[in-house]
Amino acid sequence: IAQKDYKLWMQYDKISNAEILSKYKASVNGIVSLENSATAKISSNELEMALNAMLDSKIEVKSKIEAENSIIIGSESVLDAEIRTQLQKDLTLINEEGFIIKSILFKNKKQIVITGKKDIGVLYGVYSFLRLVQTHQPIENLNIADAPKTNIRILNHWDNLDRTVERGYAGFSLWNWQKLPDFIDHRYVDYARANASIGINGTVLTNVNANALILTPQYLEKVEALANVFRPYGIKVYLTARFSAPIEIGGLKTADPKDVSVMNWWKEKAKEIYKRIPDFGGFLVKANSEGQPGPQNYGRDHVDGANMLADAVAPFGGIVMWRAFVYSEHDANDRAKQAYAEFVPYDGKFRENVIVQVKNGAIDFQPREPFHPMFGAMPKTPLMMEFQITQEYLGFSTHLVYLPKLFQEVLESDTYQKGKNSLVAKVVDGTLDNHKLTGIAGVSNIGNDLNWTGHPFAQANWYGFGRLAWNPYLDSGVIAEEWMRATFSNDEKFINPVKEMMLKSREAVVNYMTPLGLHHIMDTGHHYGPGPWVSNLSRPEWNPVYYHKADKNGIGFDRSKKGTDAVGQYAPTVANIFDNLKTCPEKDLLWFHHVPWNYKLQNGQTLWNGLALKYQEGVDQVKEMQTTWKNVKQYVDPERFDEVEMLLNIQYKEAKWWRDACLLYFQQFSGKELPDGVEKPT
Ligand code: GCU
């Protein structure tokens, strides 16, 4: 049933436009594969299969250049000397994972060369070339040099060993631990292929709330089997390291990072892992956060913990991704300030193979958060971005929300830490402070649902994450278009309205859940649906009332200089903008200010009326999405059409639920009627 869904953005449908088809047929006559590695085989197979499907042809893969208009694939070292000379300059433009796609003349015959420094670059080049064909771009005079701007482009699976997925809404974990290592589900290959096609080169298999058992030999042999599948696709395997593992599975009395027996235990563990998996990527660690064990249990700090693990993997080229997602009930004045306060003093103290992984915002993957103040504030420490692809706070896999729009907004935020144009993207790609170790992590939205991600449009979030990890400066609109053309249709009558729908969908969810800077008012625990009234949880900062602080005077969290001074964690230019009610962007208003109900918004509305109208706008936007979708029915296969239609119906119902619940609740504080234009709750 879900065959189309399953194929993701690699549908490779036959090109139905006769003119375009004949142009492509004229430019592609053969495939020449010069290399024999496992990765090179994947490249030639993919090219052969995809081109024959899209061009409805029977091109075969040869190992020698014969015909004109061949696509010649192979890394730099296997190219014919004359071709290599022609490409010399281009090859200086790319790094180890980059690629060149170029139309050349070789012995007076027109050819297309796809090359790179390594076979993995060639594979990325092949996918990039196929994307041109999938999106109906001209291929007559190609001259492309492209390379990833970050080193670690990685999915974080929050997958447990019992196959449940924390915050996963697309079924159970793909990893079938019970059948591994001997049974290799073909899905592992398809997973690797999908990731390689968008440049993802790492995967953390296990939940950050880690189980030490994954580090036992029984599990490591299963991890090894997965690593063997992923390797030719350029994907390294990483694991989460439970800090107390030396006690739980090592029989030690302590996990103190300064204890010699503990240090040695991790060193031996690293040796054991690398013996099985020579290219093991390293560890991702959540320590002293939300009850997880960590160095602070022993009076040590994050630096002690991270460096101890870093020393264990360093001899093998491994890294440690140490998460900065920390907050504590003992300093509950403003949770948003805690990670910065705890980590910034450690700047410059971590080992070279440690990278600190920071969520995009200071609270927790909300529909909208200002960028995390740590970005740009630790110039001597590599920081990597952690985005959440799974929609924990954004309607799970039920709501259509195109996340690259959110990712882009964060990446293009200006930290001003080194003056104007100190973009978050520049922190992440290392150019702001000259870091070599760089990365972007995305908390995966993948499970064993037939369509991988639950919502057909959630596939776009996986796709878009990969594209932005490759190049954090890409435009989310361009990415949406690529994805739609490769996944659904090239028909402009489909592309134009659906692209608009995708790009608006993020603002829609902000409007019907948390407009004007509201945040963390989802019902607690599961985080689905509204719960602004919840106030009875044991830790103050788990309660929604802590975040909106609605009262008779107004609503919002005062993080200005007069309040908790969270604004003070930003560079002065940014701090002043946020601090001043007049200059603070209205989209972040209630994040930074407690604002009176009668406050005049820029559009002349009072805050109360403006807030109510935003909720209504969100509902109206979902309604528009429903209409848009209905109108493109003829361009979509019936199964995916129905799925999306049903999901949009739920989303509409729930947008109204959000509006009514929040407005009725906040109304008891504002004491005001709903303005005209806002539907009355029924
Ligand atoms: C959120 C999420 C947890 C997760 C945590 C983390 O709080 O609700 O499930 O473990 O983030 O990122 O560590």
UniProtKB/TrEMBL annotation:
Q: Which GO terms describe its molecular function?
A: alpha-glucuronidase activity; xylan alpha-1,2-glucuronosidase activity
InterPro entries per record: A-glucoronidase_C_sf, GH, Glyco_hydro_67_aGlcAse, Glyco_hydro_67_aGlcAse_N, Glyco_hydro_67_C, Glyco_hydro_67_cat, Hex-like_dom2
| Subunit relationships | Homodimer.
The record's comment on protein family reads: Belongs to the glycosyl hydrolase 67 family.
Q: What is this protein called?
A: Xylan alpha-1,2-glucuronidase
- Catalytic residues identified in the record: E290, D364, E392
For this protein, the Enzyme Commission number is 3.2.1.131
Give the UniProt record's GO annotations in the biological process aspect. glucuronoxylan catabolic process
- Broadest EC class? hydrolase
Q: The Glycosyl hydrolase family 67 C-terminal domain covers which part of the protein?
A: 453-677
Keywords recorded for this protein, A-Z: Carbohydrate metabolism, Glycosidase, Hydrolase, Polysaccharide degradation, Xylan degradation
Q: In its keyword annotation, does this UniProt entry include Hydrolase? A: yes
